[in-house]
Design a protein that fits this description.
163 residues; alpha+beta; Metal Binding Protein, Guanine Nucleotide Exchange Factor, Chain A; 6-stranded antiparallel beta sheet; 3-stranded antiparallel beta sheet; disordered N terminus; binds zinc ion
């Protein structure tokens, strides 16, 4: 199968993934991005590293995206995989950017997080295992889910006005 097939949309750098997102069966074979700890430290800012590689949490309202309303896609800061869309973003009032669903379900992974004397569902990038935040079951329709995500785990890519 030709994995470099382009869609008709205007694509930014790293766009193979956007193409893959449009071709659902390809998601099953997503290849992992694996880096050493030293490589992640070199690639990320200290705060990005602390949150995404050490399961940290940014201070509420400290990130750039909790009150951010521009149309576009929020990609993984570690590997560029599109994770969330402004179309699914809502104001949760928590101080963290919140979404009721990922842009493509297979782009996020979840696992049980029993830290801090709580049982929560951790949300990770499916490709590079970056810690993104947690998902809770008190979100709005249509899913009832609230993906509570750290701004520093995300990189915003504005939607092309030519679309
Ligand atoms: Zn990633």
């Amino acid at each position: 199968m030709n994995r470099t097939r382009k869609t008709g949309r205007a694509l930014a750098a790293g766009t193979l993934l956007v193409s893959l997102a449009a071709a659902a069966p390809e998601e099953e074979r997503m290849e992992k991005t694996v880096r050493t700890d030293a490589e992640w430290r070199a690639l990320l800012t200290p705060e990005q590293y602390r949150v995404t590689r050490q399961q940290g949490t940014e201070r509420a309202c400290s990130g750039p995206f909790h009150d951010h309303h521009a149309p576009g896609t929020y990609a993984c800061v570690g590997c560029g995989l599109p994770l969330f869309s402004s179309d699914h973003k809502f104001d949760s009032g928590t101080g963290w950017p919140s979404y009721f669903q990922p842009v493509v379900p297979a782009h996020v992974a979840t696992r049980v997080d029993r830290s801090h004397f709580m049982v929560r569902t951790e949300v990770l990038c499916a490709r590079c295992d970056a810690h993104l935040g947690h998902v809770f079951e008190d979100g709005p329709p249509p899913t009832g889910l609230r993906y509570c995500i750290n701004s520093v785990a995300l990189r915003f890519e504005p939607r092309s006005p030519a679309k």
